[in-house]
C-alpha cells in the first residue's frame, strides 16, 4: 500500500444520524454493539460499482493485495461482488503477467494521488494524449509499459504487490461453488493467475535461486519497513523539487516517510519506468527476496492446485512448485539462529538482519519443516514480538533499533498480517494460539473502527478508519468462528465456509 | 420451555433460527400470491412455507374498510397482517384534484384499518401508470414545483393521520416507467425530511431499485434511517430467486443499515404458483434474510 494514510475519516456514507425516526431502520448503521453491521457497512460503503477502494476518501483507486484481502471478506457479504473484485483487478493484468499494484480509477483527478497515472505512464500519459502535458511532448502517445504489455485501455502502476490472489480466488469460489461454477469464475481467472505466477517465478527470479524478487520497497506491501533502510540508503534520491507528494495533504508528516526516503522511492520507480519496466538485463537499484512475497506465492501455488483440481486440470504441477519454492525459501532466507526468515538483499547477496513480520508469514507454507515451524512459533512468543502477552503482532521488532509504534510499517500491528499468521498457525496445528489471535483481530478491528493499523502496545487506532481489508478480514475470521459475530447466513450451507 | 409450546403460545413468534444465524427480518407474502379461499387458509400455507405474516392489498371505494369483519376474524384466528399495500388506479399525487382527494381519503381509511388490526403501516407510491418522462408525450402537464407541492401536501395530511393512528405511511419509489415523480430513495428521503414526520418512511422495493439505483446496497445505506418497509421481487419482477439480483448484497445492506422490519413479497410468480411462492422464504433466508 503506497498511499495517503490519513486520520479520522470513516469510509461509509453513513455519518449522518437519523433526525429521529421510528421506521424499520435501527439507530444508525455502524453501531459498535453489532460489529458485523459495522464491518458490512465499511465494505458496502467502499464498493465503487466494480471493485472496492481501501478507504473511501483517502485511497481512491484499486490496490492489488488490498483487493485480494477484500475479496476474502466480501465473499461473506456477496460472493458475486467478491468474484467481480478479483475479475476487475485481473482485467488490468499486463501482457507479461504482472498484476499492477494500483489500477487507477479514471474518474479520479490525477493530482489526487502521487505517484499517479502521469508518473507511471503505463498506457502513455493521458494528459499527453490530450495535449495538456506541458514540456513532455516527446512522451506524447508513448506508453512506458508498452513493451511489458501494459493494457492500453486502463492506467495502472508498473510495480506489483504480494501474490495473495490465487488464495483469495479459491476462498471466494468456496463461498458459493454453485454461483462460481455458473459464472465460470475459476475457469476465467485461472489462466490469468497462471500468467501471474509465471511472471513472478521466472521474470522476477533475479537471484537465480528460484525465489521471486521485488524491485521496489512498495512491492513488499510493507512500504517503509526498516528492513528496507539498508538497501534504500544506497539510492540517490530524486530531487525534492522534481515531484510533489500528495500524501502529506492528508497524513501527519510525523507518521510518513521522510522527504529523503520519498525521493528514493521516486527515483527507484522512475528508473524502473524509464527502463520500460523491464526485469531482465537491467541493473536494479533495489532487488530483494522478501519472505512474505514468497510465502504468499507458495500459499497461492497450493491454492492453484485446488483450483486445478476443481477444473479437472493437473494439481500436481502446482504442488511441486509449492514444494520447490518452500525448499528455496528455507535454504535462502531461513535464519535458524534467529528463528525468523530474513529478506535477502540481492545487491550484496546478504541477509537483511532485521526482525520483520514478513519473516513470520512463511507459516502459511504447509510443507515447512517442523523445526522451522517450532522456531517461528518461539519467535512469535519471544521478546521480538511477544504474542500472547500482546494481542496482535507488531510489523517490526519490538526491540528493534527503528521500532516506532505509530509509523506505518515500522511497528504498528496490521490486520492482514494477523490474518495470514492466524491461518498459518492453524494450518500447523497451533489452534490455541490461532484462536487467541483470531479473537484479537475481531476485538481490535471493531474497537478501532476498522483502522488501517493499530499501536501494537495499546491497540489504539492509527491511519485511516473504515479501512476495507480490516473490515473484510475481520468478517472472514468472524464467519470462521461460528457465533463470534452472528452473521446473516449470507453464505449457502452454513456460517462456517471452508477456509 | 420447549420450542413447540413457545410457538403455540405466541403465534407471532417467527420460526426458530439457529442461534448463530439469527433471522434478521420477518417475511411476508402479499395475500393474492397465497393459495386458499380465506385468510386463514392462506395463513396456514404461508406458515408452512416459512412466512411470518401476510401483506394485505387495499382496493378503493373503501372496500378495505368493508373487509374489517373478515380481517378481525382472521386476527382472532392468529393471522399476522403487518402491512397493507394500496391497490388502486389513482394516487395522492394525481394530476386531477378530485382523484387526489379520493386517494387521500382511501389511504386514511386504510391506515385506520391497519391500525385497528394491529399492523404497522400502509404503502403507496406517489402515482402509478399516470405519467412517464420516458414515454410520449414526455412532458408532464404539471411542473416539478407543482408535483412537489402536491406530494408534500398529501404526505403531510396522510402522515398526520398515520401518526394519530400510531402507524406509518410508507412512500414507495417506483421506476421511471411507472411514475415520474419519486423514482429513487434519495428523492423519497428528501420529501420525508421536508414533512418532518416520523410517521412517514420509505417503502423500498428491490425491483424498482434495480432499475433506478446505481448501487442498490449503497442506496440502502445512504437512506438507512428513513427506510420503514421493504418489498421484494427479483430483477424480472418474479419471485425472489427467479431473476439475477444480488440478494446477499441487498439483504446485507439492509442488515448493515440496522433495518429490522418486514420483507414482503410483492411479485409475479413464474413456474407452478404455489411452489414458487413457497420457495421464497427458503431462498431469502439462504441469501441472508
Brief sketch in words of this structure:
The complex is a heterodimer of chains A (499) and B (289). With 499 residues, chain A is mainly α.
Note the topology:
The complex is a heterodimer of chains A (499) and B (289).
Chain A: H1 35-45, E1 62-63, H2 64-74, H3 79-90, E2 102-103, H4 117-120, H5 126-129, H6 165-175, H7 177-183, H8 185-203, E3 213-214, H9 229-233, H10 259-274, E4 288-289, H11 291-310, H12 316-333, E5 334-335, E6 340-341, E7 343-345, E8 350-352, H13 370-381, E9 413-414, H14 415-427, H15 431-447, E10 453-454, E11 461-462, H16 468-480
Antiparallel strand pairs in A: 1-2, 3-4, 4-7, 5-6, 7-8, 9-10, 10-11
Helix pairs in contact in A: 1-16, 2-3, 2-6, 2-16, 3-6, 3-8, 6-7, 6-8, 6-11, 8-11, 11-12, 14-15, 15-16
Chain B: H1 3-9, E1 26-30, H2 39-49, E2 53-58, H3 63-66, H4 68-76, E3 83-86, H5 97-116, E4 121-125, H6 144-165, E5 168-172, H7 185-195, E6 200-205, H8 206-212, H9 216-222, E7 227-232, H10 247-256, E8 262-265, H11 273-286
Helix pairs in contact in B: 2-11, 5-6, 6-7, 9-10
Structure description:
The complex is a heterodimer of chains A (499) and B (289). By secondary structure, chain A is mainly alpha-helical. Chain A has a domain at 38-106 and 162-222 and 279-480: Alpha/alpha barrel (Glycosyltransferase). Chain A is built from 16 helices and 11 strands. Chain A has helices at residues 35-45, 64-74, 79-90, 117-120, 126-129, 165-175, 177-183, 185-203, 229-233, 259-274, 291-310, 316-333, 370-381, 415-427, 431-447, 468-480; strands at residues 62-63, 102-103, 213-214, 288-289, 334-335, 340-341, 343-345, 350-352, 413-414, 453-454, 461-462. In chain A, the strands form 4 sheets. Chain A has a 4-stranded antiparallel beta sheet. In chain A, helix 2 runs parallel beside helix 16, helix 3 runs antiparallel to helix 6 and helix 8 runs antiparallel to helix 11 (291-310). The radius of gyration of chain A is 21 Å and the shape is globular. In chain B, strand 7, helix 10 and strand 8 form a beta-alpha-beta unit. Chain B is of the alpha/beta class and 289 residues long. Residues 1-21 of chain B have low confidence and may be disordered. Chain B has an 8-stranded parallel barrel with strand order 1-2-3-4-5-6-7-8, surrounded by 6 helices. Chain B has a single domain, classed as Alpha-Beta Barrel (TIM Barrel), CATH 3.20.20.150. Chain B contains 11 helices and 8 strands. Chain A binds chain B through residues 12-14, 16-29, 31, 36-38, 40-41, 44-45, 47, 49, 77-81, 482-483, 486-492, 495, and chain B through 19-22, 24, 168, 193, 198-199, 201-202, 214-215, 217-218, 221-222, 224-230, 246, 248-249, 251-253, 255-262, 285-289.
Amino acid at each position: 500500500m503506497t498511499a495517503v494514510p490519513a486520520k479520522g475519516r470513516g469510509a461509509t456514507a453513513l455519518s449522518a444520524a437519523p433526525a429521529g425516526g421510528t421506521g424499520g431502520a435501527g439507530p444508525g448503521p455502524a453501531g459498535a454493539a453489532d460489529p458485523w453491521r459495522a464491518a458490512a457497512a465499511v465494505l458496502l460503503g467502499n464498493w465503487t460499482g466494480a471493485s472496492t477502494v481501501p478507504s473511501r476518501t483517502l485511497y481512491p483507486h484499486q490496490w492489488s493485495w488490498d483487493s485480494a484481502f477484500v475479496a476474502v471478506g466480501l465473499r461473506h457479504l456477496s460472493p458475486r461482488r467478491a468474484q467481480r473484485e478479483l475479475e476487475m483487478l485481473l482485467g488490468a493484468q499486463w501482457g507479461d503477467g504482472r498484476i499492477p499494484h494500483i489500477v487507477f480509477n479514471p474518474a479520479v483527478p490525477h493530482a489526487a494521488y502521487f505517484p499517479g497515472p502521469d508518473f507511471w505512464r503505463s498506457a502513455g500519459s493521458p494528459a499527453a494524449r490530450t495535449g495538456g502535458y506541458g514540456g513532455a511532448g516527446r512522451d506524447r502517445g508513448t506508453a512506458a509499459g508498452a513493451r511489458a504489455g501494459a493494457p492500453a485501455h486502463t492506467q495502472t502502476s508498473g510495480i506489483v504487490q504480494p501474490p495473495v490472489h490465487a488464495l483469495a480466488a479459491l476462498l471466494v469460489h468456496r463461498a458459493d461453488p454453485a454461483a462460481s461454477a455458473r459464472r465460470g469464475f475459476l475457469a476465467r481467472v485461472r489462466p490469468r493467475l497462471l500468467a501471474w505466477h509465471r511472471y513472478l517465478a521466472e521474470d522476477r527470479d533475479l537471484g537465480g535461486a528460484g525465489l521471486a524478487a521485488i524491485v521496489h520497497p512498495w512491492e513488499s506491501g510493507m512500504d517503509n519497513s526498516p528492513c528496507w533502510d539498508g538497501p534504500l540508503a544506497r539510492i540517490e534520491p530524486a530531487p525534492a523539487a522534481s515531484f510533489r507528494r500528495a500524501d502529506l495533504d492528508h497524513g501527519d508528516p510525523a507518521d510518513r516517510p521522510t522527504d529523503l526516503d520519498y525521493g528514493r522511492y521516486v527515483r527507484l520507480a522512475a528508473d524502473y519506468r524509464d527502463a520500460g519496466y523491464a526485469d531482465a538485463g537491467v541493473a536494479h537499484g533495489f532487488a530483494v527476496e522478501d519472505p512474505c512475497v514468497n510465502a504468499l506465492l507458495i500459499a497461492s501455488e497450493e491454492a492453484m492446485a485446488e483450483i486445478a483440481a476443481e477444473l479437472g486440470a493437473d494439481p500436481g504441477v502446482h504442488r511441486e512448485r509449492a514444494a520447490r519454492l518452500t525448499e528455496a525459501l528455507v535454504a535462502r532466507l531461513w535464519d535458524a539462529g534467529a528463528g525468523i526468515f530474513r529478506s535477502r538483499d540481492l545487491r550484496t547477496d546478504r541477509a537483511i538482519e532485521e526482525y520483520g513480520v514478513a519473516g513470520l508469514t512463511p507459516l502459511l507454507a504447509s510443507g515447512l519443516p517442523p523445526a522451522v515451524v517450532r522456531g517461528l512459533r518461539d519467535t512469535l512468543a519471544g521478546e521480538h514480538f511477544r504474542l500472547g502477552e500482546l494481542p496482535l503482532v507488531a510489523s517490526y521488532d519490538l526491540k528493534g533499533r527503528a521500532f516506532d509504534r505509530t509509523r506505518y510499517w515500522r511497528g504498528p500491528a496490521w490486520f492482514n498480517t494477523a490474518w495470514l499468521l492466524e491461518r498459518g498457525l492453524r494450518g500447523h496445528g497451533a489452534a490455541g494460539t490461532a484462536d487467541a489471535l483470531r479473537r484479537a483481530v475481531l476485538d481490535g478491528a471493531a474497537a478501532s473502527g476498522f483502522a488501517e493499523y493499530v499501536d501494537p502496545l495499546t491497540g489504539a487506532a492509527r491511519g485511516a478508519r473504515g479501512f476495507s481489508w480490516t473490515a473484510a478480514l475481520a468478517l472472514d475470521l468472524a464467519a470462521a468462528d461460528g457465533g463470534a459475530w452472528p452473521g446473516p447466513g449470507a453464505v449457502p450451507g452454513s456460517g462456517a465456509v471452508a477456509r | 420451555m420447549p420450542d413447540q409450546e413457545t410457538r403455540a403460545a405466541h403465534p407471532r413468534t417467527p420460526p426458530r433460527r439457529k442461534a448463530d444465524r439469527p433471522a434478521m427480518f420477518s417475511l411476508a407474502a402479499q395475500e393474492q400470491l397465497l393459495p386458499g379461499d380465506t385468510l386463514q387458509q392462506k395463513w396456514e400455507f404461508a406458515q408452512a412455507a416459512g412466512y411470518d405474516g401476510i401483506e394485505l392489498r387495499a382496493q378503493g371505494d373503501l372496500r378495505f374498510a368493508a373487509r374489517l369483519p373478515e380481517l378481525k376474524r382472521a386476527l382472532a384466528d392468529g393471522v399476522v397482517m403487518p402491512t397493507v399495500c394500496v391497490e388502486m388506479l389513482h394516487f395522492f399525487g394525481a394530476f386531477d384534484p378530485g382523484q387526489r382527494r379520493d386517494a387521500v381519503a382511501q389511504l386514511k381509511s386504510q391506515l385506520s384499518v391497519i391500525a385497528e388490526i394491529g399492523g404497522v403501516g400502509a404503502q403507496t407510491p406517489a402515482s402509478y401508470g399516470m405519467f412517464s418522462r420516458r414515454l410520449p408525450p414526455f412532458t408532464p402537464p404539471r411542473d416539478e414545483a407543482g408535483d412537489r407541492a402536491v406530494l408534500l401536501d398529501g404526505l403531510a395530511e396522510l402522515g398526520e393521520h398515520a401518526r394519530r393512528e400510531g402507524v406509518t405511511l410508507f412512500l414507495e419509489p417506483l421506476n421511471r416507467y411507472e411514475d415520474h415523480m419519486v423514482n429513487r430513495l434519495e428523492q423519497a428521503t428528501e420529501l420525508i425530511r421536508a414533512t418532518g414526520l416520523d410517521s412517514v418512511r420509505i417503502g423500498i422495493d428491490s425491483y424498482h431499485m434495480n432499475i433506478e439505483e446505481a448501487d442498490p446496497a449503497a442506496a440502502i445505506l445512504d437512506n438507512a434511517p428513513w427506510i420503514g418497509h421493504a418489498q421484494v421481487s427479483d430483477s424480472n419482477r418474479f419471485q425472489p430467486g427467479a431473476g439475477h439480483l444480488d440478494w446477499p448484497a441487498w439483504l446485507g445492506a439492509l442488515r448493515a443499515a440496522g433495518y429490522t422490519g418486514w420483507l414482503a413479497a410483492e411479485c409475479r410468480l413464474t413456474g407452478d404458483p404455489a411452489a414458487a411462492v413457497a420457495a421464497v422464504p427458503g431462498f431469502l433466508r439462504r441469501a441472508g434474510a
